[in-house]
């Protein structure tokens, strides 16, 4: 998007001072349950949620359906009343159960885009965008309304459709109208609740780039909700990964994808080989169904821990067969199946009666039944706790300490997605 007037919005978004390093949004110990706890077990939607969003940052709440991400966003917006906790926005407490503070949604200086867009079909594009100014609590002169609406429409490149009625708009255009309406009153915080989920794949890819570019140019602090890992990783400065109402991990997209700290994070954030492992020595050597494997020493667990060794299929190296050098964690296996996917080749590699998923260079000459070497670089082998590991699984991967390789009937190696 070419945005000529972004500086007008940026000045408002950073009205508290360009050099202010405080977080614009602070969420502390937030809880929300549905039902009366005195009449039975309540449904806990969010439980002890804590995070901050730096001024001008793009933060994504990511997780599966029902994890509490939309409820968290609605509590920030003032559309849901939290059961307890505190929310600070631009240095002001907008909710605190301890202090009895609840600032109404229309007083929170934020804009919001919903999954359904909520575009009124009997109104023109102009009237839809003008609605917060015309019907808001603050009276805005008509000349100012026109100026700000047209500026907002210009930002999303819809100024030429100002007089068109919304039923005659495409899905992408309706999404832009909703975004312009959220921006028209120049909010300090922008909330986006799965705004791309109703678009087709190609348009969704285009819009996620445009939204990221726009909010960065405007300097608006943004909280985005999605269940789509690709959206989260491509758009975010920071991701908050949620499951069952709790935060499982916080970090940059790169940190969460490359360094998952739990089985859930490794499983949810793309494809992974999850290999049952028993740690010995100093916690950097893992006994697995594939034999002993070295692990990343910066992400080790205590010796004798129940663990899963995590490695992404694309992190596994298929070395040149003409090179005789053997690296640590080199394994020999037979290609069971091979699928050409264009940008990569997906391989199911049989090793000691178990299967390892590998993503290889499509230019390699590979075929089913071929025996190849693969390398699991130790720095890419992470271990995460596996509290569900059974005693049988532990024995199968050599917890006894003999370093034996698991037999064909030993613990299963799982590949997710």
TrEMBL record:
One of its GO terms (molecular function) is ATP binding. InterPro entries: AAA+_ATPase, ABC_transporter-like_ATP-bd, ABC_transporter-like_CS, ABC_transpr_MalK/UgpC-like, Mo/tungstate-bd_C_term_dom, P-loop_NTPase. GO terms for biological process: quaternary ammonium group transport. The keyword Magnesium does not apply. Keywords: ATP-binding, Cell membrane, Membrane, Nucleotide-binding, Translocase, Transport. Belongs to the ABC transporter superfamily. This is ABC transporter ATP-binding protein. It comes from Fertoeibacter niger.
């Amino acid at each position: 998007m070419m945005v000529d007037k972004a500086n007008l919005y940026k000045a408002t978004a950073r009205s508290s001072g360009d050099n202010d390093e405080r977080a614009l949004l602070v969420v502390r110990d937030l809880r929300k349950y549905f039902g009366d706890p005195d009449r039975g077990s309540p449904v806990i939607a969010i439980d002890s949620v804590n995070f901050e969003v730096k001024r001008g940052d793009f933060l994504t709440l990511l997780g599966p359906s029902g994890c509490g991400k939309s409820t968290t966003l609605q509590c920030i917006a003032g559309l849901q009343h939290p059961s307890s906790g505190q929310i600070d926005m631009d240095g002001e407490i907008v909710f605190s159960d301890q202090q009895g503070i609840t600032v109404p949604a229309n007083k929170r200086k934020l804009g919001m885009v919903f999954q359904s867009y909520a575009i009124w079909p009997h109104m023109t594009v102009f009237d839809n965008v003008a609605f917060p100014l015309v019907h808001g609590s603050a009276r805005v002169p008509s000349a100012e309304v026109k100026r700000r609406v047209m500026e907002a429409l210009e930002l999303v490149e819809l100024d030429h459709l100002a007089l068109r009625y919304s039923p005659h708009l495409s899905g992408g255009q309706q999404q832009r109208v909703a975004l312009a309406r959220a921006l028209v009153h120049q909010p300090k915080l922008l909330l986006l609740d799965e705004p791309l989920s109703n678009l087709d794949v190609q348009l969704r890819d285009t819009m996620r780039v445009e939204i990221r570019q726009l909010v960065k140019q405007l300097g608006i602090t943004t909280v985005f909700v999605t269940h789509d890992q690709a959206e989260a990783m491509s758009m975010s400065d920071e991701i908050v990964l949620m499951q069952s109402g709790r935060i499982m991990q916080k970090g940059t997209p790169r940190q969460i994808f490359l360094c998952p700290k739990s089985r859930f994070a490794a499983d949810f954030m793309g494809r992974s080989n999850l290999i049952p492992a028993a740690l010995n020595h100093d916690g950097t050597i893992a006994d697995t169904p594939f034999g002993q494997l070295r692990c990343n020493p910066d992400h080790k667990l205590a010796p004798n821990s129940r663990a899963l060794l995590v490695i992404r299929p694309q992190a596994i190296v298929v070395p040149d067969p003409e090179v005789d050098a053997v690296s640590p964690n080199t394994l020999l296996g037979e290609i069971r199946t091979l699928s050409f996917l264009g940008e990569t080749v997906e391989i199911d590699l049989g090793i000691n009666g178990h299967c390892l998923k590998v993503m290889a260079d499509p230019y390699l000459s590979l075929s089913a039944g071929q025996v190849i070497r693969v390398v699991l670089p130790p720095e890419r082998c992470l271990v995460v706790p596996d509290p569900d590991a059974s005693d049988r699984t532990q024995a199968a991967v050599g917890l006894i300490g003999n370093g034996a390789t698991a037999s064909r009937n030993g613990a299963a190696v799982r590949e997710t997605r």
